[in-house]
Amino acid sequence: MRRMNDDTLIDDIFLLFPMVRYAAIWQNNSKICGGMRDNLESYFPEETEKISIIRQISRWVEDNELDKLGEKRYNLIVNAKARLYTIGMSQNKFLMISTEPDEIGDGLINSILELDDIS
Strand pairing partners for 31? Predict the structure, then answer.
């Protein structure tokens, strides 16, 4: 399967999955594309968002180094206001997604993984 470019992947996620509030690709602790869905407000100020995402990525890296079960496909954090997904794309490159808290996650993640053959 041919890999799509990062901007196209983000556009497709927003187009195909209306429950997604936020979709962005982060590489080396910096956002390289994406963000909040148009007409939605983030729960975080921009600097707090960055700190939160860098912590999620750091946990991913630390967990992968210690995990004997194999490389992770994605992480999910469920909060009262949102579900937060971290999906590894390659070393130091991650797809970060948030949805409303009541959305079922596995179907969404599996569909996104298939979009860009991330897994």
Answer: 26
pTM: 0.80
Rounded Cα distance, 101 and 84, in Å: 9
Q: Specify whether the CB–CB gap between 29 and 57 falls below 8 A.
A: yes
Residue 47: CB atoms within 10 Å: 8
Q: Which residues pair with 22 in a beta bridge?
A: 36, 98
> Are the C-beta atoms of 85 and 97 separated by less than 8 Å?
yes
**What's the CA gap between 34 and 63, in Å, rounded?**
25
Torsion (CA) 94, 98, 101, 102 in degrees, nearest 10: -90
Query: Would you place residue 1 in the very low, low, confident or very high pLDDT band (cuts 50, 70, 90)?
Result: very low
Look at residue 103 and tell me whether its pLDDT is greater than 80: no
